[in-house]
């Protein structure tokens, strides 16, 4: 460090050196101007710290790393928007913003772009004279014959339906697009009508209208509404939904009993057929002399055995009552839990003095795990296999390792020589050693495939050994 550096640190002005004379020449204007010239301002550094540098300026200008994003420069002009009018329906006009100037959009109200989705059913409309004309016409003979066969009356309905009420019904059908529950809820014409009455009148008027318009239309039979069948169907459904649990159980028991009778009848018929087959063998039209010798008796005995072996096997299992089966399961579970508790008490009494602390803990853990497994199976007994699979519910009997692990890490591995053969076999089949998506079902099927491949490799090994021994003997 030089003296000039120390004087600069202490902020002491340095006297100019004299060259031979006591009076030193005054500094020139250019030198004084250069010394008083302002230094360039450097960003990213405090002013006091920068002044301490003096003449030793850094070779690299320090600048801040984080800067605000520059303002976007957009050269395109913004497009104008217009609050244009459009037709929501025939009676209402609304406004929405549309891209474009007012001259391009225009001043007339245009239809909405969603008008094409506003589709309604085409329901016939008619005046009073037309209604009276086509309702006065008779139904063709084919329709009359059809109604007589079905058991319905073919006479004209002489009820209190007037044209004004029919017109009111058709207006509601147009408004609500044949949503009959809504139509019945909104129907208010001075009297109450059931849903079946409204539907019957609507389809009857439509049928008469289309018969008068086009009698050969193939869609006319679809306009026939069977009111009695609809009422009967609703009554049957109401009775079906109003059943109690006891009635459902009784129906299930009756179904089981009927299946028992059917299986018993099938079994009786099969036994009768087998008995008739034995009685008819040998055939009565043949001579008995061929069965008098020992050879003939042996042939008869062989034919009877072969006939018995050709007898079809029938299912002997009888369906069980579901309620009795449930009670048996409850009794079995209660017995198993009682046995577990008795064994636990016996082991605690007999081996309490002999067992160490660690053995006691292991035994308690095993008993607890077994009890939890029994309890889990008791909870899941009402779930079928498909329901367990869809819900992903499983009861683990074995002890699971602590922590999280991948299911693919539990795939079986073999010795290096056997593993290479298994990998080669999987490669020939076009499969990977590890499944790409190791779900529960995929891993189970993969394990089964590995077991079969190992069995085939073992069989191939024994076959090669036998073929080698056979070649040596030759």
From TrEMBL:
**Record's keyword annotation contains tRNA processing:** no
Question: Which SMART domains would you find in this protein's record?
Answer: SANT
Name a biological process GO annotation: chromosome organization
- Which residue numbers delimit the Myb-like domain? 157-208
Can you tell which superkingdom this protein's organism belongs to? Answer: Eukaryota
One Gene Ontology cellular component annotation? Answer: Swr1 complex
What GO molecular functions are on record for this protein?
transcription corepressor activity
| Subcellular location(s) of the protein | Nucleus
Entry keywords, A to Z = Chromatin regulator, Nucleus, Transcription, Transcription regulation
Q: Where is the composition biased (Polar residues)?
A: 1-21
Q: Where is this region: Disordered?
A: 1-44, 304-324, 340-360
Q: List, as start-end ranges, the regions of compositional bias called Low complexity.
A: 29-38
What is the similarity comment for this entry?
A: Belongs to the SWC4 family.
Q: What's this protein's function?
A: Component of the SWR1 complex which mediates the ATP-dependent exchange of histone H2A for the H2A variant HZT1 leading to transcriptional regulation of selected genes by chromatin remodeling. Component of the NuA4 histone acetyltransferase complex which is involved in transcriptional activation of selected genes principally by acetylation of nucleosomal histone H4 and H2A. The NuA4 complex is also involved in DNA repair.
Any idea what this protein is called?
A: SWR1-complex protein 4
List the source organism: Zygosaccharomyces rouxii
- Cite the source lineage: Eukaryota, Fungi, Dikarya, Ascomycota, Saccharomycotina
């Amino acid at each position: 460090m030089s003296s000039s550096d120390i004087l600069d640190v202490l902020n002491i002005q340095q006297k100019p050196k004299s060259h031979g004379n006591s009076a030193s020449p005054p500094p020139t204007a250019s030198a004084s101007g250069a010394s008083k010239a302002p230094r360039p301002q450097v960003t990213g550094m405090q002013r006091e710290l920068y002044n301490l540098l003096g003449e030793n300026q850094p070779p690299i200008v320090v600048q801040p790393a984080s800067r605000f994003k520059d303002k976007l420069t957009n050269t395109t002009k913004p497009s104008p928007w217009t609050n244009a009018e459009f037709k929501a329906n025939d009676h209402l006009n609304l406004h929405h913003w549309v891209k474009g100037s007012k001259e391009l959009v225009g001043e007339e109200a245009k239809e909405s772009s969603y008008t094409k989705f506003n589709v309604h059913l085409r329901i016939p409309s008619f005046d009073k004279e037309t209604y009276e004309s086509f309702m006065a016409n008779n139904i063709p003979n084919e329709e009359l014959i059809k109604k007589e066969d079905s058991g319905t009356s073919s006479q004209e309905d002489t009820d209190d339906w007037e044209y004004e009420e029919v017109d009111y019904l058709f207006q509601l059908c147009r408004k609500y697009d044949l949503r009959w529950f809504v139509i019945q809820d909104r129907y208010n014409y001075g009297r109450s009508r059931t849903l079946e009455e409204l539907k019957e009148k609507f389809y009857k008027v439509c049928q008469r209208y289309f018969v008068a318009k086009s009698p050969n239309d193939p869609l006319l039979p679809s306009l026939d509404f069977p009111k009695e069948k609809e009422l009967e169907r609703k009554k049957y459904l109401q009775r079906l939904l109003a059943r109690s649990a006891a009635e459902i159980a009784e129906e299930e028991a009756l179904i089981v009993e009927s299946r028992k009778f059917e299986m018993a009848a099938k079994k009786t018929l099969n036994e009768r057929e087998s008995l008739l087959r034995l009685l008819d063998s040998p055939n009565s039209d043949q001579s008995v002399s061929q069965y008098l010798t020992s050879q003939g008796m042996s042939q008869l005995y062989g034919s009877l055995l072969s006939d018995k072996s050709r007898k079809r096997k029938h299912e002997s299992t009888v369906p069980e009552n579901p309620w009795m089966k449930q009670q048996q399961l409850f009794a079995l579970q209660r017995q198993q839990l009682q046995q577990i508790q008795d064994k636990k008490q016996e082991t605690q009494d007999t081996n309490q003095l002999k067992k160490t602390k660690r053995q006691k803990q292991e035994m308690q853990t095993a008993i607890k795990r077994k009890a939890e497994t029994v309890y889990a199976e008791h909870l899941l007994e009402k779930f079928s296999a498909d329901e367990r699979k869809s819900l992903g519910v499983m009861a683990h009997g074995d002890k699971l390792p602590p922590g999280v692990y991948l299911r693919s890490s539990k795939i079986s591995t073999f010795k290096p020589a056997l593993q290479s053969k298994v990998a080669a076999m999987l490669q020939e089949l076009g499969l990977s050693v590890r499944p790409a998506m190791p779900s529960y079902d995929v891993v189970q099927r993969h394990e089964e495939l590995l077991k079969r491949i190992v069995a085939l490799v073992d069989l191939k090994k024994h076959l090669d050994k036998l073929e080698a021994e056979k070649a040596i003997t030759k």
